[in-house]
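A protein record in our archive is deliberately plain, so that people and models can read it alike. The record that follows is passed on verbatim for readers who wish to inspect the format.
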Amino acid sequence: MLSSTLRASRARAYATVASSSSANVASINHGQPTSSVTVLVKAGSRYETKPGVAHCLKNFAFKDTEKRSALRTIRETELFGGVLSTSLSREYIALTADFLPGNEFARHEFQESVAPLVQSESVAAFNDPATLALDLAHGLAFRNGLGASLFASSGSSVTNDDVKAYASKVFSKDNVAFIGTGVDESLLQKLVGEHFTATGSGATSSPATKYFGGETRIAPSPESHSHAPQTVFIGFGSASVSPELAILSAYLDPTTSLKWGQSTSPLAGLVVPGTTIKSVYLPYSDGTLAGVIIQAHDAAAVKTAAVGVAKAISDVKAGSLKGDAFNTALAKARFRLASGAEERAAQVASIGSKILGGDKGLLESLPSALEKTDASAFSKAASSALSAKPTYVAIGNVGSLPLSGALCESRWPWQTSELRDVLTTAPALFDDRLDTHTHSVPGRLPPGNLNHPIMDLPPNAMNGEVADDTQRPDLPAFMVIPPSDVEQAALVNTHFVPPIVQRMYSPQTDPATSQNLQRDLFELQRRPEAWGLVVPFVNSSDPQVQFFGAHTAQVKIARDWDQWPIVHAQALRDMLLNLTAQAAAIGVTRVVMRKLYVAVSSLALRLCPLQPSLWQDWAKDTLAALLATPAVESPPDFLQIAVEEVRSADLLTAPKARMQASLKVALPFVMQLFMGHIPVRPDVSVSARLAWLKAAEAWVTSALPGDELTTLVPILIELLRDRDSFVGTCDVLEEIMSKSALSGGKGTKVLTDPLLQWIAAEGHVILQESLSNGCPDENSHAFCKLLLALGDHSTDYLISKIDQPLVQTFLKVILGFTGFPGWYGMDEEESEMTLQFWSAVQDSIIDSEFDDESAAAKQASIKALDLELVLTLVRKARWPTVEEGIKTWAKDQKEKFQNFRRDLGDTLINTYYVLRNDFFDPILPTIVELLEHNGIPVGGWEGVEAAIYSIKTIQEAVPVGPNANLERVFGPEILGKLPMQGYEQIRRTGLDLVGSYATWFHAQETPELLMNAMSYVVAAFSEPQLSLHAARALRDLCENNRRALSKHIDSFSNLYANLPSIPDTEKAKVLQAICSVIQALPLTDAIGPVEASEEARASTLAQLHALSGCAKGLTNNTDPLLEFSTEDEDMESIRLMEQARMDPRMTELRSKIIHVLTLAMSIWSADAEVGDAVSDLIKAITSLPSDNTLLSLPPGPVLELVCLAAQRQTTAVWLTLATMLTTQLDSATSSVSHLLGKADKTSNRDADRAVVERATAMLVQYTLTFLATPSAMENNPDVVRAFFTFLTTISNAFPSAIVTLPPPLASGLMECSIKGLTLPERYSLVDAAKFLSTFSRRAIVNPDCAEAAKALLKQHGPAMSQALLSGISGASPRSTIPNLVELLAILLAKVPEHRTWMKETLYSPLMSNPRLTREAKDKFLFAATAARSSRQTSDAANEFSLIARGLDGSGFGYASLPV
């Protein structure tokens, strides 16, 4: 009867189906009161060429066309009372009304209308759990084709051009049907012929539908928040029109036929208030999806209903649907189909299926199939259909919603042992897992049964005893461990008990044996067969063996990935995922688990970035597996390691982006886990909460966007009340403020203000508790770090509101930590942590401009805060007294406290820049009060010393000029009351104070304060322990106040007379100070004092230091940039100096100094201390001619002395001095002598050249002899560098000194230089290349030595070419290539024969690098020899170097080219 009814309906419904010249046309007319035209396009999501493009095309309907604008189309439709609508299914796009193709597809319409509408529809769909569940269910059931989503994702890359291309493809004659209802067919055909022109021919197609099934679990989108119901979809599908699923859907449908009647569905009893159950039946042209959607706000209610649904399906599969129950379900299915056939949409779909699909259509095939189905046929077909893997989707609280395998005691049909046996032997075990559209974890089994086909191998499977290629296809053939190695690994009773690992870690094993065992085991690990060790080792009961197994998995994936066939990649994925879950379930140690997480992450780094990805949902899959185990700390531990591995992975930009995208995919799930486990809940232990906090801390840096952080922050602030989790919570908040999307001052409303409120309300109590206890604890330390992170995050914001009570409280709490009682390093560590914050505060204050009404209040708050800060820092700078335990402090503790005081001083400097002269207001009264009574101040001198030290630290910020506060400091009120005997600490600080302000005294109008300071300093020389500080202060005072002190030169006679009593180490500084004052005297008055200093040469070492001090003191320290003298004045100054130097007394004194140097260098040249003293003296007493002093020695004789010392012992010191003296000789004849016209410049130059040539010959001979011993160049890089630097200077100034060397010596020098080009030490190689480059460039263009230089280069050219090309092609560090290329370019330009040598070298057997093909060598040779600039040569050499190193074509190679 149903068939006849449908036939009658169709007879009424339409008369003809015709095909016009441009499209298919059909008309349905059975007297409807309204008319419509539907354009049905075979362009549903199953046919789309790019995900989301069908969704975009559907929303392009009724936009601008060539003849009508979108506005005109809508207005004309409204004028006739019409309605325009569009819809998208998985097979068709339907456009109802007078839609005509020919859209302009304007880009502005796509951007302004289509794209926002698509996004809005997608967001609405994905925020509706039922819609999202059905969309995901299609993806799980069919994957491709029908599995394609109806909606464009938020990250869709569909462009306007993509839509145009898709439209031109689908709007073809065979792909479009015009279906009218209530419209005359001939009129419709005429209109279509006039107004529609097809863009092509042929129909769209997609692969044949195939049913897969699977499971996915996701958290709801953040937009839906907690209002979305918990949702589960349970269903099955078919790759055909399935009457069995239609009957099953009707049987499970709990809706009643009568309004107040009872439903006969087995699910009727599960429908309770708050729970909805909806049966779904979705037939398509070649597939069907049927199932049940369960929704409730309580996850427990959903679970109860889901268990009932699973039981009902299992009962149907077992054959329970028969008799009256079957007849009722069949009748209900028929009625649903018949009632649907009367609807216009169903009629259009049926006709469209026939026209565009070429089949009978659903309305014809399904009714006849239902009529032929009886109970027996249904039972058989349903049993087969329900034996497939179900499609299961859970959306909501995934931690509470059930897994598919936990819905009933018996397994789902797809988990039966029969199918398991098929999976074990089927050749295509993992073929279906290579599809990239699946949302489930392939091969995952329910909790409680964590086995996997690859986990329960037969005893001979892991050692490679496979019968044939069709057995165990999930294991690569190379996973074979030879019997000998198996024996060593001890395969006993099918259980791996590896004695190697156990013996290696055993305390009884000696180190040598342990090292050998480790080498053997690692050697086994390197072999391809070692993949087979992972499962048995991790399954061992020995934790050490478990760790080695997990480590092997990580190493093999990271290092030996190329050994694993990509076709088996997902098999490895499933094995490792299940192995990890099983290890977590049985309680494997945390260390082993963390190593397994690293292995899983390493595998994800291999599979996820592939195109297409083989594991996009790796994070979600792993989390779901771990959440099913009782190990509560496993999921957060994995999350922490996963994000850290992704962040630190060395990937190129595109793969890195894909890995970040995979984390973004898992983000909603992860956020739900954070929100569910971080708050204090009775079902979450403290240890688990801390683990989740650690995971959140790791994700904050790079994986959590700002909107997720704003959701998380309030929960964290609330959690600060829980002392058990306080430290972990502070760590997460610190990370958010310093490294997240909210760092840098963002999020003040959600982050800064709430934290300030919490600090004012509760946080300050933590500081008070620590003060009461007398020492900081773990919580107070974390609290201090949190405060500083907040301060660093919101410095400018806090300063802008510094007068507000909340900010004042915050600053006072930090100040409390700064002034925490006790001494830094002994009693607390927090005070040092706050110093950087206070410096940042001062910087922000300086940069701020307060121009509002509260500016005065803010300035007052800043001043009060900084004054209190100054007092606090002065108090913290105080050393403890003897009674307070200073003598018990170790040396390292004293050094630590001294460093703290230095950092404290830096903070005081910044504070001074804000307070200026107000800085002294709290300090000076304190000092005066302490010094009010004669004798020892109350509490000892330590408080005074701290205050004086604070004044010393700000010296660099105090301007030079009148300063009443400093006048008090250096006057009788303070400096005059400091002790002159004993009390070493306070006196040492006083001396340093005087020395630091030496430049300030220079600006004072009267010398009284300066002389007071001098008296204080000179008095300290009587105590040896203070002599160092006194000598420094004296030197600084004399250097900066020469003219003022020169008036008191006679007073220095007493100081000089007491010189023997001053320690030898400080005499040089004292002499330098005295001589600096002498330098300010008129030249005629300076001769006598300088002559007197010659008496100091009696004691060689001490007098060398003394002479150095004299020479340094006599040096003019005036900055030439600040001098505005004319050239005539400069000439006059030089003339006067030369005249004074010609005084017989000075000439004799310089001769004596040279004699002393000769004696010292001939006797003690091998003595390092004397050598340093001589070196220091030579540097001080020789100079360029324009800087000569009364004592300056000529460089020639001194250079000969240096050669004498180098003969006795060749060191870098003498070679460096020789370089300096050569430079002075080079400029000697170009300045003073020439300017004064005293001698012929050419003759002086010849004399200097002769000196240099003799010195060069000696130094080259001595150095080559020293470097001739084996490995001498490698072991003495300082000598090598100094030698080549000397030679570079010679080549620049006197190139003839190289070519005039005796031939054997010159050849030895070139051989040594060529060997230098091959040194592994970078700087030595660079210096050797610089010498050869300089010599080649300078000598060849010098007419006096050009021929000899060319002969020398030709003699050693081939060897030089070999060294250069070997270095460029990989033997030398890449950073040295610019130097090698420079030399190569010079040789190519200056020595034509080098082109031949280069060709011979390139094609010789020595250049055997397999990467350097003949083509690469030809290209390099042509480019280098044809280059017209050094830049072109450099580009060719760089390219050649990349090829030789295998870096050509890589982003890293080109990005790291040396500049």
Q: What stands out?
A: The mean pLDDT is 79.
